[in-house]
Design brief:
The chain is mainly β and 288 residues long. It is built from 1 helix and 19 strands.
């Protein structure tokens, strides 16, 4: 445990030391602002890539989640998955809640969406499965009264260590402030395999936890064989939620923190915290 903690701290120090020098162009845009290329859709009770009633659509350069084609929401929870898996990275999502909730949407889902990380592959989900086995970075909008934090943690089919103890609560609130209305908010998540995850809202850290793993409940319709109690969860898919309230996403971008760490290689990056030196590319020496 001490060795893992030391490595994690070294990774964080390395990333923090180089973060100010990272060119914004290093961030990969997962959403191109034009179409849904590179994404897969899974809506409860429908086959993979059946985008029922155009729930997920691109309009005005935004990735929109809408329910104008629904007679009733009827627990048709949906997710749109990016095609690649990641393990060490920082993801940034800019979102806003708009309009009114779909008819018959559950009360808790008002102004509610999420970024699912370390998720299962969409093709492994049951047709009637409600949520992917994953770690949910819960996005909530204010209700116009009282406090309602965002960038919380929820755990469909997973558990984490929070404040150094195994915590089996389904949701843990962050320390963020409340964001009412239709204002744009930027959520970022630093993901270091199964060792450390940190949530940020508009640049401020609001939550931290460690040792992500499968187990627990709060998911249905899944293959039981995928829910092994206590199995480390160190990588997976990234998806965005459809939970009955309209939401817009104007940016979904990722900074991969795993790659070539050999300074002699042409694709070396100083901010990588996880080595994948099989990916290193070297310039060929010219023959004399």
């Amino acid at each position: 445990m001490k060795k893992i903690l030391t490595l994690t701290l070294l990774c964080l120090f390395s990333f923090a030391a180089s973060a100010q020098q990272i060119d914004p162009k290093e961030w990969k845009q997962l959403f191109n602002g034009k179409n849904l290329d590179g994404w897969h859709i899974k809506i409860r009770n429908y086959d993979l890539d059946d985008n029922f009633a155009k729930t997920f659509r691109v309009e005005d350069g935004l990735l929109k989640v809408r329910y104008d084609g629904y007679d009733s929401f009827a627990e048709k929870f949906g997710h749109i998955f990016y095609k690649d898996k990641y393990a060490y990275y920082r993801i940034g999502v800019e979102y806003r809640f708009v309009g009114d909730q779909a008819k018959d949407g559950p009360g808790w889902a008002t102004r509610n969406s999420g970024i699912m990380i370390h998720g299962q592959a969409p093709e492994t989900m049951g047709k009637d499965q409600d949520f992917p086995i994953s770690i949910e970075v819960q996005l909530l909008g204010g209700l116009g009264k009282g406090n309602r934090t965002t960038c919380n943690l929820c755990t469909p089919g997973t558990n984490v260590f929070y404040q150094d103890k195994l915590d089996k609560r389904h949701c843990i609130n962050s320390t963020s402030k409340t964001y009412d209305g239709d204002q744009w908010v930027r959520a970022e998540v630093l993901v270091l395999g199964d060792s450390l995850i940190r949530h940020f809202i508009n640049g401020e850290q609001v939550l931290e936890y460690t040792k992500t793993q499968t187990g627990g409940g709060n998911v249905s319709g899944h293959n039981p064989g995928l829910l092994v109690e206590g199995k480390p969860l160190a990588e997976g898919t990234i998806s965005l939620q459809s939970e009955s309230h309209p939401v817009d996403f104007r940016k979904v971008e990722i900074l991969n923190l795993c790659g070539c760490t050999d300074p002699k290689a042409s694709n070396y990056k100083s901010y990588y915290v996880k080595s994948d030196n099989k990916s290193c590319v070297y310039k060929k020496k010219r023959k004399k």
